[in-house]
């Protein structure tokens, strides 16, 4: 789970940076405001990579997904990208947990000596 979620968060880091470049074109926003908000969100996305295995990290990750969708108020394309990344976040959590369970199952089986995974087993 951790690898999939971290990959999603790292991709969001870049998307937030590019959204900041787009937001710079808004005459109502100052450069300081745009880069303060984007910088904080980018830092949060990187820091979450380190704690995503803990329940608090997952909850904060959902908060970041909501923030990305809400940022669509200033950069309308972020509504779409935020929803896409929200879906990726859900998929990373859902399928990442399934992969972790399968790995634990195979590890338990190979410790018992009942099954030794072959070279084709992943």
Walk me through the topology.
Elements lengths: L1 H22 L7 H21 L3 H16 L6 H36 L10
Helix pairs in contact: 1-2, 1-4, 2-3, 3-4
Q: Your description of this structure?
A:
The protein is mainly alpha-helical and 122 residues long. The protein contains four helices and no strands. Helix 2 packs antiparallel against helix 3 (55-70).
Key descriptive features of the protein:
single chain; 122 residues; mainly alpha; 4 helices; elongated
The largest sheet is: none
Distance between the termini: 15 Å
Pattern of helices and strands = HHHH
Count of helical segments? Answer: 4
Morphology? elongated
Portion of residues in beta strands equals under 5%
Rg over C-alpha atoms, rounded to the nearest angstrom = 19 Å
Global mean pLDDT = 90
Sequence stretches where pLDDT stays below 50 over 5 or more residues:
none
The portion of residues assigned to helices is: over 70%
Structural class, by secondary structure, is mainly alpha
According to DSSP, the number of beta strands is 0
What's this model, at a glance?
With 122 residues, the chain is mainly α. It has helices at residues 2-23, 31-51, 55-70, 77-112.
């Amino acid at each position: 789970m951790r690898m999939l979620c971290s990959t999603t968060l790292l991709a969001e880091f870049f998307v937030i940076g590019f959204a900041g470049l787009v937001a710079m074109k808004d005459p109502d926003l100052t450069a300081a405001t745009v880069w303060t908000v984007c910088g904080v969100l980018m830092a949060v996305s990187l820091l979450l990579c380190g704690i995503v295995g803990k329940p608090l990290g997952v909850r904060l990750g959902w908060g970041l997904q909501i923030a990305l969708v809400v940022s669509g108020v200033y950069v309308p394309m972020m509504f779409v990208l935020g929803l896409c990344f929200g879906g990726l976040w859900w998929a990373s959590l859902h399928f990442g947990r399934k992969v972790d369970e399968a790995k634990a199952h195979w590890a338990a089986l190979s410790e018992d000596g009942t099954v030794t995974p072959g070279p084709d087993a992943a």
